[in-house]
Design a protein that fits this description.
Distance between the termini of chain B: 146 Å
CATH topology of the largest domain in chain B: Spore Coat Polysaccharide Biosynthesis Protein SpsA, Chain A
Number of helices of chain B: 15
Largest sheet of chain A: 10 strands, mixed
Largest interface: A-B, 81 and 86 residues
Structural class of chain A: alpha/beta
Strand content of chain B: 5-15%
Protein name (chain A): Anp1-domain-containing protein
Organism (chain A): Lipomyces orientalis
Order of helices and strands of chain A: HHEEHEHEHHEEHEEEHEEEHHE
Helix content of chain B: 40-55%
Shape of chain A: globular
Order of helices and strands of chain B: HHHEHEHEHEHHEEHEEHEEHHEHHH
Number of domains of chain A: 1
Distance between the termini of chain A: 60 Å
Number of helices of chain A: 10
Structural class of chain B: alpha/beta
Helix content of chain A: 25-40%
CATH class of the largest domain in chain B: Alpha Beta
CATH architecture of the largest domain in chain B: Alpha-Beta Complex
Oligomer: heterodimer
CATH class of chain A: Alpha Beta
Number of domains of chain B: 3
Number of strands of chain B: 11
CATH topology of chain A: Spore Coat Polysaccharide Biosynthesis Protein SpsA, Chain A
Protein name (chain B): Anp1-domain-containing protein
Strand content of chain A: 15-25%
CATH superfamily of chain A: Spore Coat Polysaccharide Biosynthesis Protein SpsA, Chain A
Number of strands of chain A: 13
CATH superfamily of the largest domain in chain B: Spore Coat Polysaccharide Biosynthesis Protein SpsA, Chain A
């Protein structure tokens, strides 16, 4: 074999070398970027350290108050993002809370679809952060998940009951990865804003913070067109007050079962915030909630710091944001909702 | 030899079946290129063009190999406010020190000033590359000079002449939670105090972690300040097992009269049927704590399974973990597992952490024969006992001296007697001064004293001081008495004198 090969190629050694060299270079260059982090080093370079690397933070002075605006409290806006909507982005950059007090965090799943979302996000972020100083956010962090999400993103799939548990669990994990790595010593508030929320009042942060509640959620609706008429309908059913039926259901369930809201197969008779909306009523009417949705959710950072997270496992038969409200309650934090304060979900 | 075999190193001697390599084989491989030189030319041209294109437009690389989506996933050096992190690069592997994986070392501190020098001597000795270790301290509810001392020691460490001694980023957080119980040994370890205390500790740990954890961290190492003896390779030793959560066995030394050593951390255990049943009977907010007769759980404890000669690499699946030294992959915390500051499945803090990790499907492992030694902190009773022992020893010593003195007096031999006195008078003095130095060194984080011996020396010192004070007080009282007597005598004298004159 060896004899044969060398004989046949002897004619044009230069071309062979070129081809081999070029392909080697290509492979090397393509992979060099991804493997650089795992390069084995006998002795790593000396520390980034030095006395300058010691930082001191006084967390006692950190507060989250209703006067967030005046006391310069920092807000962290977190969005798990799989699809990029222009409307979401425009709405986000139109928030009129001072942008120098806003840090933004995104987390993207792995996969092809997310790649295209990433490209568009990158473009938008780049444009904003190199644009007018006033509009720039203090910090933008873009994360890539370290696990695979099981869900496909079509509207129908997303809402099928069978896949709910896996989908919500992956979502919970993504949210947890996002907040645990992006909350730093300066953050007072965390605003969870879903990537498909396309319209909110531009004063969203101040409005929600003004209530000075540990956890507060806006009512998520959706605009649609019916016979040429513009209408709105309830969208997010995860904000609710518990019912005896649901509690009884939970009692009868196995450890690993989860109650989901908004499915005929599981009639819980909970009081849903979605249906509490009355057009024209006071925007700032509050109600107490037992479960919350995370579409537009403002949380005091101390709630997350104390350990309230989005359970990716059945926690009191609840999962993700609904489980979050329960866990916060176990830590002594009550959730609230604003039934008349609407934010709008993208309509597919 | 080989020519005889026609180059076949394994000639078939039997004639049953034979595949010879020396047969005609069609030249299929390069026919394509040979017959179509134009295509070959095209290939030759395209390759460099592709390479050049990929150099010029990095975004094209994702098209070439879709899985490389991460290569556009990079910080732009010109935009300082935007940061990219691919979390799959910080999932943690068993050979982190070779792959440059960053470790976040979390150390909660409360009134820990006396332990800090020792802690820093441990930190200096860590063999895991220091530049890969970021440290986060939480100083809470401290009334002593913990913060001040910590700052001084850190400044000193970070300005070390050897750059390999310096650590990565260091964050110090100050946050008071309001204390429910004191930090004294007896305060901390009373049964009633456990539930609220553990919940508070949990909050502190969560604050520390959520504030300090960054996307580039692959591992999180929790370490208490009051560890006395730990192998310098402890991070690598635990990491090598490549488990999601792993803890060593924690023991503590004891004075000989208490048995020499004792299992310390009883929070690392395997779940038992009894405990499960017990949990069901308790209220939602109750917290089961280990090591108290009030909750007899009959769980197998990691601590009790230690064999001093056992293989340190033996692993054991556990459900609850203790917090003295936990190595966990950062992805565990990123997934949401934390130290419950509420009763999670009837457990809180580190035990609840173990439970939650299990619930989320992570591996939780203990090493029964790999031991880290916690400091010995004497209880009030222990200190009293040590003081009594010291007094007993002193009493015997003086008795012996007296006896020796008597003997000398009886014998009347001046030479032997003098030698005896000088012996018994000199050596304890020398010993005492040496021990005093040792104690001072120990408190500065040097020397080879262990916490038991240090406690004994401290008790001895205290007894000595007390005796000195007593002696002084007695002398003072005597002097006062004498003075009073003298005064009385004088008064009587003047009276008498007066009488006389009168």
């Amino acid at each position: 074999m060896v004899m044969y090969k060398s004989k046949s190629l002897r004619g044009r050694p230069l071309s062979v070398i070129t081809v081999v060299g070029a392909s080697l270079l290509l492979v090397f260059y393509l992979f060099s970027s991804s493997s650089s982090s795992s390069k084995a080093q006998k002795r790593p370079p000396p520390a980034i350290g030095g006395t300058k690397s010691i930082s001191h933070y006084q967390l006692n002075g950190l507060q989250s108050t209703w006067r967030s605006f005046e006391t310069h409290e920092r807000v962290l806006i977190l969005t798990p993002i799989a699809r990029f909507y222009e409307e979401y982005w425009n709405n986000l950059i139109n928030l009129n809370y001072p942008h120098e007090l806003i840090e933004v965090g995104f987390i993207l799943p792995r996969g092809r679809e997310a790649n295209s979302a990433l490209l568009r996000l990158e473009e938008a972020v780049k444009k904003l952060q190199t644009g007018t100083k006033k509009n720039r956010f203090a910090k933008v962090t873009i994360l890539r998940q370290d696990f695979d999400s099981p869900f496909s993103q079509s509207e129908k799939d997303r809402h099928a009951l069978s896949g709910q548990k896996e989908r919500r669990a992956a979502m919970a994990r993504a949210r947890n990865s996002l907040f645990t790595t992006t909350i730093n010593a300066g953050i007072s508030w965390v605003l969870w804003l879903d990537a498909d929320i396309v319209e909110t009042p531009s004063t969203l942060v101040q409005d929600l913070a003004a209530h000075n509640k540990p956890i507060i959620v806006a009512n998520c609706y959706q605009r649609y067109v019916d016979h040429g008429e513009n209408k709105i309908r309830a969208y997010d059913f995860n904000s609710w007050q518990d019912s005896d039926t649901a509690l009884q259901m939970a009692k009868d369930m196995g450890d690993d079962e989860v109650i989901f809201e908004g499915y005929a197969e599981m009639a819980t008779y909970r009081t849903l915030m979605s249906y509490q909306y009355v057009a024209g009523n006071d925007l700032h009417e509050e109600i107490q909630l037992d479960g919350v949705g995370a579409t537009a959710l403002l949380v005091k950072a101390e709630v997350h710091r104390d350990g309230a997270m989005f359970p990716s496992f059945p926690f009191y038969h609840l999962i993700e944001s609904e489980g979050f409200a329960k866990m916060a309650k176990r830590l002594g934090y009550q959730s609230y909702g604003l039934p008349n304060y609407l934010v709008y979900h993208y309509n597919e | 030899m080989f020519s005889m075999m026609n180059g076949n190193p394994f000639p078939h001697t039997s004639q049953t079946f034979n595949i010879s390599p020396h047969r005609f084989q069609p030249r299929s491989k390069n026919q394509f290129l040979r017959r179509q030189p134009s295509k070959r030319l095209l290939l030759l041209v395209l390759c460099p063009v592709a390479v050049v294109l990929l150099f010029l437009f990095p975004t094209l690389r994702t098209l070439a190999i879709p899985s490389l989506g991460s290569s556009i996933f990079r910080d732009d050096p010109l935009i300082t406010t935007v940061h990219h992190y691919d979390l799959s690069r910080s999932t943690g592997t068993g050979r982190g020190w070779e792959r440059g994986e960053r470790v976040l070392m979390c150390i909660p501190l409360r009134d820990a000033a006396p332990h800090l020098p020792m802690m820093f001597s441990h930190l200096r000795n860590l063999t895991y590359p220091h530049s890969l270790i970021d440290m986060a301290f939480l100083v809470s509810d401290s009334k002593d000079e913990t913060l001040l001392l910590l700052n001084t020691l850190l400044e000193h460490q970070q300005s070390d002449k050897d750059p390999y001694q310096r650590f990565g980023h260091i964050d110090i957080f100050e946050k008071d939670f309001g204390q429910v119980v004191g930090q004294g040994f007896s305060d901390r370890h009373g049964f009633a105090a456990q539930g609220p205390r553990r919940k508070l500790m949990a909050r502190a740990r969560n604050w520390l972690l959520s504030t300090a954890l960054r996307p580039e961290h692959s591992w999180v190492y929790w370490r208490d300040a009051d560890v006395e003896v730990a192998p310098p390779t402890v991070i690598e030793d635990l990491m090598r097992h490549n488990k999601d959560v792993i803890v060593p066995n924690i023991w503590r030394p004891l004075p000989d009269w208490l048995g020499g050593e004792q299992p310390y951390d009883l929070n690392s255990w395997q779940e038992s049927e009894t405990a499960m049943q017990l949990a069901q009977t308790l209220s939602e907010d109750a917290v089961i704590v280990e090591g108290y007769p009030e909750y007899a759980t009959w769980r197998p404890h990691l601590a009790y399974l230690r064999d001093p000669y056992g293989d340190p690499d033996v692993e054991m699946e556990i459900d609850g973990v203790g917090g003295v030294s936990i190595l966990a992959k950062a992805k565990v915390f990123r997934a949401g597992s934390h130290f419950p500051a509420f009763s999670f499945e009837r457990h809180a803090e580190t035990e609840g952490f173990g439970k939650m990790c299990k619930r989320m499907g992570f591996s939780v492992v203990g090493l029964p024969h790999y031991v880290i030694w916690h400091m010995y902190e004497p209880s009030v009773d222990d200190i009293r006992h040590m003081a009594e022992m010291e007094q007993e020893r002193l009493r015997k010593e003086t008795e012996a001296q007296e006896a020796a003195g008597k003997e000398k007096a009886d014998a009347g031999g001046p030479a032997g007697g003098a030698a005896g006195v000088s012996d018994s008078g000199d050596s304890p003095l020398k010993e005492a001064s040496q021990e005093k130095d040792l104690l001072a060194m120990y408190e500065n984080g040097q020397g080879f004293l262990d916490s038991v011996r240090a406690a004994e020396l401290r008790a001895a010192k205290q007894v000595k001081e007390e005796m000195m004070q007593k002696k002084l007080a007695a002398e003072k009282a005597k002097a006062e008495e004498a003075a009073a007597a003298a005064a009385a005598r004088q008064a009587a004298g003047t009276k008498n004198g007066g009488k006389k004159t009168g």
